[in-house]
Amino acid sequence: MHRRTALQATLASLLMAALATPAVASDTPGVTATEIKVGAVFPFSGPASALGAVGKALIAYVTMVNDQGGVNGRKINLIALDDAYSPPKAVEQTRRLVESDEVAFMYSTLGTPSNLAIAKYLAAKKIPQAFVVSGATRFTNFKDYPFITTGLPSYGTEARAYARYLAKEKPDAKIAILYQHDDFGKDFIDGFKAELGDSFDRKVVTSSFEVSQPTIDSQIVSLKSSGADVLLFAGTPKFAAQAIRKTHESGWRPLFITNLVASSIASVLTPAGLEISTGIVTATYRKDPDDPKWANDAGVKQYRAFMEKYMPGADLAESNYFTGMHQGVVLVQVLKQCGDDLSRANILKQTRNIRNLALPMSLPGILVNTGPDNNQMYTQLHLQRWNGKAWDLFGSLINDDAKAAK
């Protein structure tokens, strides 16, 4: 009798323990009752190493979240590897993450070439490629890329914003475009072609560069000789700084527009020269923590507190850190929404189910809203101009609408 009672008590205890333990999707590698493995690939070295700051901030943010107990009782085991901005290396590292480390899903992999290189492999395995740090327009086509969500504004959206601005402010301008010779840079060419139509060939001159090149000096000299009075740069930070510096040294004074990912104060404007960068225009979705107007902003205070504790000594003006922090906030939101259903199908579903999420460093009115027909974290932008010391916003909020009136 006592044995039966003891057995019943033991069984009851085991049942209670099972009920108290979070449910785990048995078909999802990398998920246990206490942990979820997440894979990521960043250019911590190589020609785009400045963008590795995104990964460093994401790692720090995940560390903070884990220090606070994780998400839904699980710690996040973020395994971030270096691909040196090389597509073959990205494939190698992604295979390692999936097949050896057995991550539940890929998150925040940076760069258009790298994400393109791994997309088919991940799709074949039905592994979410969540919130990639790329604005490649092709990735916004969720029918062609059903496992991808994007973590940057579309380059097509950005290009249209610049083309419409120039059509209004400088309708007769000759435009020079210096672009990175890959899908990243070509998206800006395509965006201008879509806006300018038949006048593109008459109004625009282009020159491309490879990320393996040491400098882009010859391209700047060539574009200057075209007589263009607008220069649009579409590429990564290292070459943006070179372009700003060389343009100034050559005596050429066009209206200089640089793409969002190459607009960091720390990795672009400072190396180029803050004073000679005066007048540069770019699009943005984020606040400048060094601008006095945001001194008492709750989001900026949150960013500063995070950086001071988890990335002490880092340059707070490095906008790639903002991106990494925002990637961390969205990762936590997705996992919270998943609850205890961490199947890959539900992870994918929740990446497309974010509603009115305000991120700490985003400008007022810019919210994350993903859904069945929208796989983009950001669909709104604002133009800004560098005054030598800070960015000045101008114009109104730009919504992503490829068919908007010119």
Can you walk through the features of this model?
The chain is built from 13 helices and twelve strands. By secondary structure, the chain is of the alpha/beta class. The chain folds into two domains: 14-153 and 298-375, 3-Layer(aba) Sandwich (Rossmann fold), CATH 3.40.50.2300; 156-284 and 382-399, Rossmann fold (3-Layer(aba) Sandwich), CATH 3.40.50. Helix 2 (52-67) links the parallel strand 1 (35-42) and strand 2 (75-82). The longest helix has 20 residues, at 319-338. It starts with a helix and ends in a 7-residue tail after the last strand.
Short description:
By secondary structure, the chain is α/β, with parallel strands linked by helices.
The CATH architecture designation of the largest domain is 3-Layer(aba) Sandwich
The CATH superfamily of the largest domain is identified as: Response regulator
Ends distance: 85 Å
Which structural class do the helices and strands define?
alpha/beta
Number of strands: 12
Low-confidence stretches: 9-26, 402-406
Which sheet architecture does the biggest sheet show?
A: 5 strands, parallel
Q: Enumerate how many helices there are, as a single number.
A: 13
| CATH structural fold name of the largest domain | Rossmann fold
Q: What spatial order of strands do you see in the largest sheet?
A: 2-1-3-4-5
Mean pLDDT: 91
Number of domains: 2
Beta-strand percentage range: 15-25%
- One letter per element, helices H and strands E, the order comes to HEHEHEHEEHEHHEHEHEHEHHHEE
| Structural Rg | 23 Å
